[in-house]
Amino acid sequence: MSEHVRPIDLPAPEALARELGQRLPVFQDITWTGNTGSTNADLLARARSGLGAAKPWLLGTHLQNAGRGRAGRPWQNRAGSTLMFSCAYDVHLPAAQLPALSPLAGVVACEALRAVAGQRANGLCMKWPNDVQWHDAKLAGVLVETTRNPGGREAGYTVVIGMGVNLRDAAELSRALDRDVADWTQVQAESGLLPDAADLICASATAWHDAVQTLEREGFAAFQHRFDRVDALAGRPVNVLEKGDILLSGTACGVDEHGRLLVQTPQGATPISIGEISIRRQA
């Protein structure tokens, strides 16, 4: 935690849900709980059941007992240290275009957090596919999952976008995970602005809602230039890893019209749709 910066305190669940309901009129159901297993899993189960109000939905919690990151990794958190919420949206896209939702969610989340933090917070960037970083340290993780809606092909899909933003404990998390982790107090210290939890939630939830609709109309090509403005990997040497093995090495050079990372090698630009990306440290 940055010195002399007060971390964002989470209001009581009921109070936060009321404020979000007032500020997010397009959302048909907003719930905030003291604890749950996983906000993503809860919304996916609800979507598969076919029950409940029309979408979009928002579910947040002060504590996740079975939170997940990408590739099924457990999400570490303690009550009050992380802002955790998920949103569910209907999406009508061919199945082949659904993977673009992952980088899309990261791009617009980074844009939304930049808007809340202000112009001085230019250290906010996104590492493909969707990690939000603060000066190369992970600030927020995004998990995107989809499920087919009941009712057949014409019913489309539900996309659930979950995000966890570290509000405090960067030093402790960095030691525990043995890698650089950031928290929002560091952003506040540089930006000079003091948004509250609802500001971060509303900005992200609204941005995702608008972005999903744009993706349906225009495809990911509409987001390529926006990706470039938040790209943490541009021009940097990277390794593409799978289960710890290096599959490819090259230089990151943006994304293609499908949201796939482009890695330049002597053989040309290779599109990457899966795998972990590691920045190669220069000697």
TrEMBL record:
Keywords: ATP-binding, Biotin, Ligase, Nucleotide-binding. It is an enzyme of class 6 (ligase). One of its GO terms (molecular function) is biotin--[biotin carboxyl-carrier protein] ligase activity. GO terms for cellular component: cytoplasm. NCBIfam families: birA_ligase. The lineage of its organism: Bacteria, Pseudomonadati, Pseudomonadota, Betaproteobacteria, Burkholderiales. This is biotin--[biotin carboxyl-carrier protein] ligase. Residues 59-166 form the BPL/LPL catalytic domain. Its EC number is 6.3.4.15. Residues 235-280 form the Biotin protein ligase C-terminal domain. It holds the Pfam family BPL_LplA_LipB. Signal peptide: none annotated. It catalyses: biotin + L-lysyl-[protein] + ATP = N(6)-biotinyl-L-lysyl-[protein] + AMP + diphosphate + H(+). Gene3D superfamilies: 2.30.30.100, Bira Bifunctional Protein, Domain 2. InterPro entries: aa-tRNA-synth_II/BPL/LPL (IPR045864), Biotin_CoA_COase_ligase (IPR004408), BPL_C (IPR003142), BPL_LPL_catalytic (IPR004143), Transcriptional_repressor_C (IPR008988).
